[in-house]
Each structure stands twice: as C-alpha cells, then as structure tokens.
Amino acid sequence: MKCPYCENEDSKVIDSRHTEDGHAIRRRRECEACGRRFTTYEKVEEMILMVIKKDGRREAFDRNKLLNGIIRACEKRPVSLASMEKIVEEIERGLNNMMEKEIESTFIGELVMERLKDLDEVAYVRFASVYRQFTDINTFVSEIEKLLTNRKN
User: Fold this and answer.
1) Whether this model's pTM surpasses 0.90
2) How far are the Cα atoms of 21, 82, 146 from residue 38, in angstroms, in the given order?
3) Which of 19, 32, 73, 132 could form a disulfide with 10 if both were Cys (CB 3.0 to 4.6 A apart)?
4) Distance CA 108, CA 1 (A)
C-alpha cells in the first residue's frame, strides 16, 4: 500500500477491524519510511448491476434512487429511516446474490412492494400507485381490497 504522504510502497498493518456494517475491513497502517500512520479500507469489489427499464433503456443500479422512492412512499408514516435502509440493503444483497448482470426494473419494484406490504400498508399503496401507474380510483380500491382479503387470510 502506497503511503499518501511520502509515496513509499512499504507499510505495515498496525490494526485491523471490521466496519460496523461488516462489509469492509478498516486497517491502520504505518509507513516504514516516514513513520506516519494512515487508514485504508478493504472491501469486496462488486460487479456493476444494470437495470433494464420498462422502455428498454439500461442504467446502473442506484441504491440511492431506490431509497428515495421508498422514502417518498413512507413520507409522514411511522416508518424509521433504518427500516427503509434495511429494505434497500436486503434488496441490494439479494440482487447481487443472484449473480445476474442485468435485472428488470419490474422485478426490483415487486421486491420493494413485497417488503413495503409487510412494513406499512399505506406506504405500499403509495408505492404501488406510482409503480403500477394507477389511472383511476377503481385501481386504488382494487388494490386495497386485495390487501384486506390477504389480511383476513
């Protein structure tokens, strides 16, 4: 590892720890030439996941875009940011575990709705109304009736 101060290539690891989320290792290093200390992070390089949009366009998966959509659906609802971030983390991990390079946006949307349905039904209906492009009140009523039927079973 190259020292950021003197650019010497020799350093020794003084301390290694997992980050709080467990997805990286934090290493404290000491340069063998200048003696200064610096921190590095080591994490698994993940493959780039491409999302195939409804119109056929492809764009890189963006966890922030997914989180923002969930935040909008949960606005003014008793849902913590930690719960929303957990949904994004679970979905992202699941997509990466599939080992596919391209995923349809419709599949991702269904995963979000599945988790929102268990978390907050109002947020679920809000997300579904945008995602499934509800066009009138009858579509809303139909979706709510499905929720009520599933709740009884």
Assistant:
1) no
2) 21, 31, 56
3) 32
4) 38
